[in-house]
Amino acid sequence: MDGQLDNRYEMPIGLSFQLGLNEKALTVYAQMNDEEKRQVVEAARNVTSKVEMQQLVAGLERKFC
C-alpha cells in the first residue's frame, strides 16, 4: 500500500470536524501510531450522532493526555 491508508481507514468527516474543534484531542491523535489511529477511525465509523462523536473526541483528550 505504499504507506498510504486505503479507503477503509479514511477519517470520517465528523471525526475530522470534531478534532478540528478540539486542539488537545487533535494533538493526541497526531501523536498516535497507525494502529491507534485505525482504532479511533473504526470507533468513529460506529458513531450514530454528533453527540457520540463529540464524546469520542473528548475521550481522546482525557484518555491519552
Main beta sheet strand tally, sense and closure: none
Query: By helix and strand content, what is the structural category?
Result: mainly alpha
Task: Report the portion of residues in β strands.
Answer: under 5%
The ordered string of helix (H) and strand (E) elements is HHHH
The number of helices is: 4
Rounded mean pLDDT is 87
How many strand units?
Answer: 0
Low-confidence stretches: none
Termini gap = 31 Å
Work out the radius of gyration: 11 Å
CA-based shape: globular
Q: Please, could you describe this protein's structure?
A:
Helix 1 (13-21) packs across helix 4 (50-64) and helix 2 (23-31) crosses helix 4. The chain is built from four helices and no strands. By secondary structure, the protein is mostly helical. It has helices spanning 13-21, 23-31, 34-45, 50-64.
